[in-house]
Amino acid sequence: MWSGGRMHPRYCAGDGRRLLPAPRSLAIILALVRGRHARPERLVPYPLTALISDLHGNWPALQTALADARARGATRYVCLGDVVGYGARPRDCVLLVMELVAGRDATPGAPALVPGICLRGNHEDGLLGVAEDFNPKARAAIDWTRDELTRRGADNDAVWEFLDACSPWAEDELAMYAHGSPR
After folding, report:
1. Which of the chain's ends, N or C, has fewer CB atoms near its CB within 10 Å?
2. In sequence order, what DSSP letters do the residues of the chain get, joined into one string?
3. Which residues pair with 117 in a beta bridge?
4. Domains: count for the chain
């Protein structure tokens, strides 16, 4: 994050890791006490939901995240977008996310899943449309991913239909989901 030719103060110039501010849980608790947030009129049974995002075709990272979610007992998956991108296995990532949000998990011993949600991120937008707003490296990654998804597999139509059907935002009984921001 650059600002006027210098590193943004919230980011460490040495390694690019973001310096996070202290949690504001007290402010949230006070807001609840003061009634700024409406309480639900009825309790809605809500499955333990794992949020995954910005996979960018990174199969090993997706496997690690899913193993952790399964160990914690997640029964629903919401993907906030950018399933494809820079990684070497975009097809595998898309196919697995398709299965998870459909409520299917082929892992032996995995609990039954509740159908989830998959959103369209900016990389899916670039893949399905024009990637003019991307920097040259990201544009090259999108072009390679497009070729990779088109080149092989009997499930080409299913992959493209799934990606095209993803919306930029979604909501359910308790939450609103978006990739980046709800704008």
Report:
1. C
2. -EETTEE-TTB-TTT--B-PPPP-HHHHHHHHHTT-SPPPSS------EEEE---TT-HHHHHHHHHHHHHTT--EEEE-S--SSSSS-HHHHHHHHHHHHTT---STTPPP-EEEEEB--HHHHHHHS--TTS-HHHHHHHHHHHHHHHHS-TTHHHHHHHHHH-BSEEE-SS-EEESS---
3. 78
4. 1
User: Could you tell me the residue range of the domain that residue 51 belongs to?
Assistant: 47-178
pLDDT tens across the length of the chain (183 residues): 333 444 444 444 444 444 444 444 444 444 444 444 456 566 778 899 999 999 999 999 999 999 999 999 999 999 999 999 999 999 999 999 999 999 998 888 888 899 999 999 999 999 999 778 899 999 999 999 999 999 877 788 999 999 999 999 999 888 999 998 776
For residues 175 and 76, is the Cβ–Cβ distance under 8 A?
no
Indicate whether 161 belongs to any domain: yes
Report the CATH number at residue 103.
Answer: 3.60.21.10
